[in-house]
Every structure is written in C-alpha cells, then in structure tokens.
Amino acid sequence: QVDVAAMAQLFGYVDVTDTGFIVAVLSITFNPLFWNVVARWEHKTRALSRVFGSPRTACYCLGAVILVLNCVRSHCFTEAMKSQPKLEGWDYHWTYYSGLAISAVGTLFVVSSFLALGFTGTFLGDYFGILMEAKVTSFPFSILDNPMYWGSTAIYLGWALM
User: What is the number of other CB atoms lying within 10 angstroms of the CB of residue 57?
Assistant: First the structure.
C-alpha cells in the first residue's frame, strides 16, 4: 500500500501541466543525456575528432554546445519558476537571502571546479583522449567528490528559493 498523500500535496504546489514546466523538465533531462551519449559515441568512434580535425577542437566544440544547452536550460528553468504557484509562507526576505547564499556557495563550487579542471577537464576531454596529468585533489575536490554537480544543484535550489 503506497501513501500518495505527500505526492498529492506536492502537486498542489507544482503545476505539472504548465507548458513551461514541461519544457524545463525536458531540458533538464535532455542535457546530461545528450552530452553523455555524444561523449561515449566519440570515445567509441572518434568521429567528432575526425570531423573537426583534432580531439581538442572537437572537445571545444562539444563544450560550446554544452554551454549553449545550459543557457537554454537555465532560461527554461527561470520561465517555469515564474509561472509556478508560489508558497505563500515562504515569501519573506530570509527566503530570498537564503536562496542567494545557497546559489553563491553553488557558484563557488562550479567556478572553482572549472578552474581546477580547465575547459577540457570540465567538458569531457577524457572521452576525446585528453587526459589530465594527475587526479585533481585541490579545492573543491578536497571536500566533495562531485563539486560541479553539487554546485549546479545548489545554484538551482537557491534560484528556486529566490
């Protein structure tokens, strides 16, 4: 026997039929699926490296596509948040500033991860045969295993609160 009361309560706060919500969910789902499928395909076939003339150029092009897709995802998320019902009990300054703080911590993790890994380290260079000289263990990897993912999640959580 499954208690669906919690889900029923959640759906009172989320309009899952809203077009913006559906587009945001599809965008959020599509992005990692796309870049993982393309990276694994590249790893098996080296097709992008051949098309672009080098693994580095191909990696930079995929990275640029990922960045554009992330901008689209962020836009879709923002538009979905604007059209969703608001939690009346959370419409306070402390909620906004909590969201701002959570987003700031997330941004710290994402930016410091990028700086530690570099462009090809961040954007799947290992699938193109572009390997780091050594495992990165400096901040933020010294405190989290996946700081880029945790940071992105924190950014979107903070954004939702704001």
Answer: 14
- DSSP 8-state code for residue 125: G
CB-side neighbour CA atoms (13 Å) of 119: 12
What percent of the chain has pLDDT above 70? 96
DSSP 8-state symbol, 143:
T
In order, the DSSP letters of 25-92 are HHHHHHHHHHHHHHHHHHHHH-HHHHHHSSHHHHHHHHHHHHHHHHHHHHHHHHHHHHHSPP-GGG-S
Cα gap 90→92, rounded to integer Å: 6
Locate 82 and state its tokens: 């604007």
Provide the residue count of the chain.
162
Q: Which amino acid is at 141?
A: F
Q: For 3-44, write each residue's pLDDT tens digit.
A: 777 767 767 778 888 999 999 999 999 999 999 999 999 999
CB contact at 8 A, 80 and 20 = yes
Q: How far apart are CA 162 and CA 156, in angstroms?
A: 10
